[in-house]
TrEMBL record:
Protein's UniProt keywords contain Transferase: yes
Gene label: ispD
EC category name: transferase
Region (Disordered): 476-512
Role played: Catalyzes the formation of 4-diphosphocytidyl-2-C-methyl-D-erythritol from CTP and 2-C-methyl-D-erythritol 4-phosphate (MEP).
EC number: 2.7.7.60
Organism name: Micromonospora pattaloongensis
Family named by the database record: Belongs to the short-chain dehydrogenases/reductases (SDR) family.
Record protein name field: 2-C-methyl-D-erythritol 4-phosphate cytidylyltransferase
Biased amino acid composition, Low complexity: 478-490
Pathway as given in its UniProt record: Isoprenoid biosynthesis; isopentenyl diphosphate biosynthesis via DXP pathway; isopentenyl diphosphate from 1-deoxy-D-xylulose 5-phosphate: step 2/6
Length: 512
């Protein structure tokens, strides 16, 4: 048990005995049925960012050095589902997965029975709060060296009103004194046991949370409140599912970068296949990965005659890489086409090309790549753009296909999780690539992200454990000015919007 033993002696309650717990137990309360979300399964089993909500939640405690043991109390009838998730994720701190009770309080009693009589710290946390931060866990545990009970809360941004039986305002409490409660709630085991012992003798006992039990039956015990976090939301309603998914996207912006030695250790012996690797982001990624010892195979129409939208070309490319190295660890799709113009003005060959290269090709590549990625537990990496968040005039097909790739990423991450294959999508801001120059002409260099920066971020994603994520890559204030990509000088230069295709209707696709 790793804890900060520093305590504030001036705030220690008078007469409090020194606290010497033998361990710290996190209790994940997963008894909800998901009725308000409108699902046929408990909401904690719903997948967000490629994993069940409960898996995200348990992972926080698994990674926390302050936590020694995890006990999961699951909704009756779904204990086996929770056990399968725990086993598949390889959580080592989970000692028991048992059935919860009919109410929150009944579930807490079952948890206390499972913990046993030893003196320990206990943290009760809602399974459907998957965005709990390590900071909150740490501060809860540290506070128990001084206090017997700890709650987590955030200030109320809204004015709270009290109404009477006729729904008329009866009081408006001072907002500065109000907080919105979250979890975990943390206790010294003896304190929470005593509170529930006293509650058992009260025929009118009814509490919505465990701190409420302490407050009512042990009113002399101070309950310390530590700051929560806005992102520590509880997935309760349908809109919460979308909010949590977006928050996971924001939290995944910067996978942990490695130093050069670590990159080499991670990449040596791996095989990376890049579709669209002749220039732009794909070219920089190929060069970067090769420099760290990876075996990289870059395919494109201009470089290798590979038409990414053709299943036979994709299969040939993958087979070439596999036969040369005996494995494929990562498949990256940077190929794309950007044609600007009103949909009504586009000719059929242009429309067909955009749909084929921007969407059909990633689908084709994904299907053909899965058998190889299953063997290595690898990753498929796609690319979207900021235009995926809303359709824009003169970008109709481009925006639509990029939005489709985000949905494809999330769906495949879900489908392929059972195979141990990860799927992610990189969302770079405006990047200095030939594709962008071709569409927009020359732009101020200080406004563009360097393709090499996106390539480095992409490598970090490939080496991370992320799945089902859309990772934004943004230009930092101190980043060097982007320079035009020199990998394909013949293609750099302004091109009128909606440029005509080649006579055969197969203009060469651009690449990120």
């Amino acid at each position: 048990m790793t804890q900060d033993l520093t305590t504030d002696t001036e705030t220690r309650p008078a007469g409090a005995a020194p606290w010497r717990p033998n361990r710290t137990v996190a209790v994940v309360l997963a008894g909800g049925t998901g009725s308000r979300v409108g699902l046929g399964i408990p909401k904690q089993l719903l997948k967000i960012a490629g994993k069940p909500i409960i898996e995200h939640t348990i992972a926080v405690f698994e990674a926390a050095p302050e936590i020694d043991e995890i006990i999961v109390l699951m909704a009756p009838g779904y204990v086996d589902d929770a056990r399968r998730i725990v086993d598949a994720a390889g959580f080592r701190k989970v000692t028991r997965v048992i059935s919860g009770g009919d109410t929150r309080n009944a579930t807490t009693r079952l948890a206390l029975d499972a913990i046993g009589p030893d003196d320990c710290n206990v943290l009760f946390h809602d399974a459907v709060r998957p965005l709990l931060s390590p900071r909150i866990v740490r501060e809860c545990v540290n506070a128990l060296w001084t206090y017997e009970a700890v709650d987590v809360a955030i200030p109320s941004a809204d004015t709270i009103i009290q109404v009477d039986a006729d729904d008329c305002i009866s009081d408006i409490p001072v907002r500065a004194h109000l907080r919105r409660g979250q979890t975990p709630q943390a206790f010294r085991s003896g304190t929470i046991r005593e509170a529930y012992r006293l509650a058992a003798d009260d025929p009118e006992f009814n509490a919505t949370d465990d701190c409420g039990v302490v407050l009512r039956y042990l009113p002399h015990v101070p309950i310390k409140v530590i700051p929560g976090a806005d992102e520590n939301i509880k997935v309760t309603h349908p809109v919460d599912v979308h909010l949590a998914d977006k928050l996971f996207q924001l939290a995944a912006q910067n996978p942990r970068p490695l130093d050069d030695r670590a990159y080499t250790e991670e990449l040596r012996g791996r095989t990376i296949v890049i579709f669209g690797g002749s220039y732009g982001i794909g070219h920089h990624l190929a060069e970067l990965a090769r420099g760290f010892g990876a075996r990289v195979f870059a395919f494109s129409r201009s470089g290798t005659g590979t038409h990414v939208e053709r299943a036979e070309d994709v299969e040939t490319a993958l087979k070439t890489a596999f036969e040369a190295t005996g494995r494929i660890d990562h498949v990256v799709v940077t190929a794309g086409v950007l044609r600007i113009g009103a949909l009504a003005d586009m000719d059929d060959p242009t429309i067909e090309q955009m749909l084929q290269v921007n969407f059909v090709a990633p689908v084709t590549i994904a299907r053909r790549a899965l058998p190889y990625l299953r063997q290595t537990g690898g990753q498929l990496l796609l690319y979207t753009s900021s235009s995926y968040t809303r359709g824009r005039a003169r970008y109709a097909l481009y925006s639509a296909t990029k939005a489709a790739l985000v949905n494809l990423t999330q769906a495949l991450a879900d489908e392929w999780s059972e195979f141990g294959v990860r799927v992610n999508c990189v969302n770079p801001e405006r990047t200095a690539t030939p594709m962008r120059t071709r569409a927009f002409g020359e732009e101020p260099e200080h406004t563009l992200l360097a393709a090499s920066t996106v390539a480095r971020a992409s490598l970090d994603v490939l080496l991370s454990s992320l799945t089902g994520q859309v990772i934004d890559v943004r230009r930092s204030p101190g980043e060097p000015v982007a320079v035009p990509d020199e990998a394909a000088p013949a293609r750099v230069g302004a091109q009128p919007p909606l440029a005509p295709l080649a006579a055969n209707g197969n203009g060469a696709p651009d690449a990120w």
